[in-house]
From TrEMBL:
Pfam families according to UniProt: Metallophos
Bias (Basic and acidic residues): 12-25
Disordered: annotated segments: 1-25
Alphabetized InterPro entries for the sequence: Calcineurin-like_PHP, Metallo-depent_PP-like, PP1_catalytic_subunit, Ser/Thr-sp_prot-phosphatase
Database matches in PROSITE patterns: SER_THR_PHOSPHATASE
Protein name (database record): Serine/threonine-protein phosphatase
Catalytic activity: O-phospho-L-threonyl-[protein] + H2O = L-threonyl-[protein] + phosphate
GO cellular component entries: cytoplasm; nucleus
EC number: 3.1.3.16
Keywords tagged on the record: Hydrolase
Domain of life of the native organism: Eukaryota
Amino acid sequence: MSADANNNKPGSVEEPKSKETPKFDLAKENPRCAEWMDDCIKRLNSLYKDTSINICGVMSGHEIIAIIRLVENIFMEESNLCEAEAPIKVVGDIHAQYQDLNRLFDLIGRVPEEKLMFLGDYVDRGPQGIEVVVLLFCLKIRYRDRIFLLRGNHETPSVNKIYGFYVECQYKYGVGLWWDFQACFNRIPMAGLISKKVLCMHGGLSPELVNLDTIRNIPRPCEPLDRGLLIDLLWSDPTNKGEGWFHSIRGISYMFGKGVVEQACKSLDIDLIIRAHQVVQDGYEMMTGRRLITVFSVPNYCAQFTNAAAVVCLNANLQISFQQMLPPALPDSCKAKAAPAIAVDLNLEAARADKETIKPFAKEGSKEGGKS
Ligand SMILES: [Mn+2]
C-alpha cells in the first residue's frame, strides 16, 4: 500500500502501489518442470546464430505439445485482461524473426531479469515462428510473473493458415501441431493492463469497449471471427487524421482518431495505450495526442522494410523511454524500400510533432486539458 495518499491531488496520476505480488517460483513449486524448462530454453537458445539447424533438431513434436498444454493452463489462470506492474518493457510484433528476437534480448535484457509484455504477432511472415512461440511459451512456464503474452491477429487460424505458420508447421512437424497451436492461441489473453493505467493490446480500441470488465468478461477459449470486440482489439488502427471512428483500409475493423483515444482514457481511467500491429520506421511512434504508442519490435520487417525495432520501457512511475535496435545492413541482393512512418496514416507531420515532444505521462496527466 502506498503511504502517501495525502499527496495525491485530485486529478493527478496516482503513484503505483508498491504492493509486491508474491513471486511464483517454479523451481520451488515443481523442480522437475523447472529443470525441464531450463533445458528447453537452453536448447532453443542454441538455435541463435546457428541457422544450419532448426527447432526439429532440438525438440520433438511431442515435447512441443506438452509445452502447449502447460502454457495454455497458465493463460487460463490469467485474466483475459492480463494485469502486470511496472517497471516493465513492452514488445511489439516479432513475426517469426527468431534471430532478431534474440538480438533484441541481447539489447533489452532477458527474462527473468527484465519483466516483459509481448503484444502478439509471434508467428507468420518470417521463417522461425515455431521457434519464437515455443521459446516464449517456455519462458512463460518457467517465469510466469516476469513475462506476459498477449494475442495478435496472427494468432488466429484464419490468418496464420495463410501467412506462413501453417506451412511452417507442415514441413517441420506436420499439420497436427498446427491445430494444437490454434487451441492454445484461443486461450491467450486479449489485452493487458500495466499498473492499472496503461492499456495494452495488439490492434486497438473498439466501439464495444465501454469498460475494462468488457475485456475481463470475454469467455475463453475464444476465436475472433469477422467483427466485434475481439476483432477490434486485434485489428483496429489509430489515425492522426480525425477524431472519431472510420472505416479501415484493411477491410476489417476500424480506424480511430484522437477524440476516441481521449474519450477512452477518461472512461477507462487510463493514461496511455500501447499497441503494435503496424510497421513504424523507428520501431515506435507516438500518435493521437501522445496518448497512444505504436511499437514494432523486429528490424527489416520481412526483409522488405528498412525499419528499426524498438521496445517501450515503463519505469516504476510509468515514465516512458524507448530502446531501439537499428536494422543490420541488408545484403545487396535484397531490394529494400522505406516503410511509411505509419503505413496507413497520411498525417506524418502530426505524428512527427508528437514524437518530438515525448514527455513523461505520469507528471503530465493533470494538465493535459490545457494542451493540444
Ligand atoms: Mn498484426
